[in-house]
Design a protein that fits this description.
The chain is α/β, with parallel strands linked by helices. It has helices spanning about 10, 15-25, 35-50, 55-70, 80, 90-100, 115-120, 130-140, 140-155, 160-170; strands spanning about 5, 30-35, 105, 125. Strands 2-1-3-4 form a four-stranded parallel sheet. The relative contact order is 0.16.
Length: about 170
């Protein structure tokens, strides 16, 4: 598998989208990767914004995320981050992770923080999750349909229609 993507913290924050992206990674159309720092950011924000969520369950979710995708954690990117320039210096670690992993795509909502001119020298592109999912549909429409069907079926209270299910994925 040569197509590698890095999921930014903001796409791992909301459970429905996180679940979809992890399930898509399970189709083996691409290799999804991230770092402990990316997970720290996602789960620290989740704990801060949702104090009603049990910390033990959040830690369990974090562990399960890593178990769901083999070889997902990127290490050794720290030295690269210091030499990178992005509009938000706090995002340099994400680009460094992408470079270290040999990723072609960073999946993020923050496209302005990853301008094409800063990413192009490294062969990396930032994609909004909508664009990324559409690209995965182009690779294997049937696999994406099966993933969505399975995700909807796994819900305790599944939406009545597929359109209602797709609405849950919107941020």
């Amino acid at each position: 598998m040569s197509f590698v993507v890095v999921y930014d913290a903001n796409v791992l924050y909301r459970a429905p989208l996180r679940d979809l992206l992890l399930r898509l990674a399970g189709t083996r159309q691409f290799q999804a990767r991230w770092t402990d720092r990316i997970l720290d950011e996602a789960f620290e924000n989740l704990a801060r914004n949702r104090p009603d969520l049990d910390r033990t369950r959040l830690l369990r979710t974090r562990r399960l995320i890593c178990e769901a995708v083999p070889d997902c954690l990127i290490t050794g990117r720290e030295p690269l981050a210091a030499g990178l320039t992005l509009p938000d210096v706090d995002d340099c670690h994400v680009l460094a992770a992408a470079i270290r992993a040999g990723a072609q795509v960073i999946v993020t909502f923050n496209l302005d923080d990853f301008p094409a001119n800063a990413l192009e020298p490294f062969g990396v592109e930032a994609q909004h999750p909508d664009e990324f999912v559409l690209n995965v549909i182009d690779l294997d429409p049937g696999a994406v349909v099966n993933v969505c069907r399975d995700q909807r079926a796994a819900l305790q209270k599944p939406p009545q229609t597929l359109l209602e299910f797709l609405d849950t994925l919107e941020g």
